[in-house]
Structure formats: structure tokens, C-alpha cells
Amino acid sequence: MSGPLQGLRVADFSQLVQGPNATQQLADMGAEILKIEPLHGDWQRNWSLGDAWIDGESVSFLAFNRGKRSIALNLKDPRGKEIALRIIKSCDVLLENFRPGVMDRLGLGYETLANIHPKLIYCASCGWGQDGPYLTRPGQDLLAQAVAGVLSLQGKAGDPPSPVGMGIADLTASFHIVGAILAALYERNRTGIGQRIDINLLNSILSLATQEITLYLNTGKEPQRSAAGIGHPCVGAPMGVYKTKDGYIVVAMMPIGKIAELVGLSGWEGNDSRNVIENRDEIKRSLEPGFAQKTTAELVEIFLAADIWCAPVNSIPQMEHDPQVVHNKSIVSFDHPKVGRFRTIGPPAKFSRTPCEIERPPLLGEHAGAILHEMGFSGAEIDQLRKDGIVNQQDPA
Question: Could you tell me if 265 and 337 lie in one domain?
Fold first, then answer.
């Protein structure tokens, strides 16, 4: 790997999305990720978004686990725990997203590990926090969206509360995990001492809604959803999604009069307002007939020539062929021994001297033999661990 994090070694106990997406980002940037899985594998090896499988491999697992090495261990057996401890001692960072207390019960909690590896950066990520009234509740993306109030910001007025159509709490938490780990590593360079980091879904998604929540906290005004598809509960006309002759287009905060002129509507001359809250739905609806007379491409050309902030509303298939997406090489691919060529979204960061590289996700326990050898186990010991069911290993065909 050639990324800027070459030499960083991470013991990754995480499953599902928030942890694996974080370690995938670190892997893309060159870190060595040792994925320590249960004998049956990461939860997402056995579940897939949309129930989508390719030759028995979960699309969800493949989406979040590239560039890692896998070892599958029975952590409830003392020999499995000993292997885990050897791996942890060789690493700079540990990441786990079990429910609070699980790692302590396994004898792998922060206090225990800090005594034997004081330089370790230990990051725990969970749903609600490491203590408090929700401690024993299950923590999951949709549940965090609901508690954080995010469902009240989505959709149109009068609609039921609307979830965001992706794992936004998980993904936001993963970005906080990466940032916090890198910050802790920077601090360790000064002091030589590691520390514990705690990230949770609730705080992460609350931080994403900082502007909307802060508005309410300081004015008492609760965000109100638009009935006409303006798209943001705290923003006025003319911003929003508009139906065109052949699709949809979005317009951001621009002068109402100019928008009306460009779509051939009269009555708005001289109106330079960009953010009308009062009567915003009526104003937007009055503009809609003008948009419906032209195609999306025609409107984009007209608006951009007049420096109007706009963009086509792409479907996922349209996004794939969007000129900027193609130019940015946002979609990448790798070869997998079971599924063949697999396409996904690549790393967003670009580095001039140390470019990110991507490698395929591992098969379950694929690197057990190599990792155990690195930890000092002999060939005979490794064979015995396999026979005794302490490790589980799949080999590429």
C-alpha cells in the first residue's frame, strides 16, 4: 500500500457499518487492518442490503471491508483470547463497536489493555454512549435517526416522519471515528501515551443536524417541513426540487425574479429575494409551471449561463454516467476470488505524493495462517488451532 498511513496497524473488532467503514477509510489510506471476526464472520457476511448476494458473498460486506486481512477467532476460548492479545500488542489502534461492556467481559477492555500496552489508541463506538439510561438498549442507525429528531426534518409537510434513505448515522459516526483516531495518534506523537476514544451514533447524527438544532435552541422556532418540496425545513422559496418536461432539477437560494424570468413567467420582476419563508409553498408552486415547459438539460444550460445555482436530479443509474462523477473516477473496481469484478465507490480523498490504493475485501479468516505466523505461532500450533476450532479460515479458490 502507498497511502499516507503506511505503517499504521489497526486491530479491528468492529462489524456492520460504522466501524468497518472507518477502517476501510484507514485501509484506503495505507493502514494495515487486521479484521478480527467471530468464527461465523462479521454480521454483514450473513446479511446484505436489499438481500443482494453475488455467489454467496454479501454486497454489504464487500462494500465496507476492502483492503483488510481477516482472522476468525473464538474469543471465548483462552487460546483465542491469547491470539487476540498478541495481535493487539502489535497494533497502534484498536476499534470495537460491541455493546458497552462486551470487551470488558472478554478480558479485552480498555483498562486491561492500557496496562499492558500504554501506547494503544482504543476507540469504542456504540449506539447511545458508554453509560446512561439507554445503556442496555440496542443501538442502530434508524433508531438513532429517530431519537435525534432527524425524521422530522425529512419529506413534505403532512407526511409521516421520514428516515434518510441511507445509513447516515452509521456513516457519520465512521467519519468521526477516523478523525478522532488520527487526532489521538497526533497527540500520542507528542506524549508517547495512548488513550480511549468513545464515539456513538446519537452524538454523531446530532452533530450532523447542528444548524437546524441550534436554530431551535436559540429561537424556539421548530423547523417546519415544506409541503411543496423546498427540501429544507428552515429555508424558503425558491429553493427546491422542480419537475421538468423529462425529469427533475434542483435550484438553490437564488433571486425569485430572475428564476421566473428564465422560465418565462411574469409578475415577479424586480423581486430579488432569495429566501422567502412566508408563503414559500405558494411561491414555489407558482414557479413550477415554467419549469415543466423545458427539459432538465435545457434548464441547466439556461440557468448556468445566468449563474443560477442548479443541478439535475440524477437517479442512481444517471449518476453513474454523470460527467463529473466519471471525471473524478469516483467509481472503482477490484477483482474478488468469488464474485469476480466488483464495482463500488472509491476513497474520496486525493493525496499528491501518497495516493490511496484499494484492495479487495478478505474471505472469512483468509489471513489466519499468515497473521498467526507473524504472532509467533509455529506451523504445528496453527494446524492444531484450526483443528480445535479456535480459528476459522477460508482459502481463495
Answer: no
Catalytic residue among 170, 272, 281, 395: 170
Query: What CATH number is attached to the domain comprising 256?
Result: 3.30.1540.10
**CATH number of the domain within which 103 lies:** 3.40.50.10540
**What range does the domain containing 273 cover?**
240-313
- What pLDDT sits at residue 395? 87
The greatest distance separating any two alpha carbons of the chain, rounded to the nearest whole angstrom, comes to 86
pTM for this structure? 0.93
d(CA 83, CA 267): 75
254 & 109 share domain: no
Strand ranges, E, within the chain: 9-12, 32-37, 53-54, 57-58, 68-73, 93-96, 121-126, 196-200, 240-243, 248-251, 310-312, 331-336, 340-345, 391-392
- Edge-to-edge strand list for the sheet holding 248-251: 240-243, 248-251, 310-312
Q: Note the pLDDT of residue 46.
A: 94
What CA–CA distance (Å, rounded) separates 109 from 91? 15
pLDDT value at residue 173: 97
Round to the nearest angstrom and report the end-to-end CA distance of the chain.
Answer: 24
Do residues 303 and 258 lie in contact, with contact meaning Cβ atoms separated by under 8 Å?
A: no
Quick one: cell of 141? 442507525
Contact 181, 23 (CB under 8 A): no
188 inside domain: yes
Which pLDDT value is given to residue 396? 86
∠ CA 356-362-363, rounded to 5°:
165
- Given a cut of 80, is residue 315 above it in pLDDT? yes
- Count of domains observed in the chain: 2
Task: Look up 170 and say whether it is catalytic.
Answer: yes
Share the mean pLDDT of the chain.
95
Own/partner pairs for 230-234, CB < 8 Å, 24+ apart? 230/280, 230/281, 230/284, 233/152, 233/153
356 backbone dihedrals φ, ψ, rounded to 5°: -70, 145
- Residue 77 forms part of a structural domain: yes
Asked if 261 and 202 sit in the same domain, the reply is no
pLDDT at 397 over 80: no
Spatial contact of 228 and 285, defined as CB atoms under 8 Å apart: yes
Confidence of residue 1 (pLDDT cuts 50, 70, 90): low
Q: Say if 256 falls within a structural domain.
A: yes
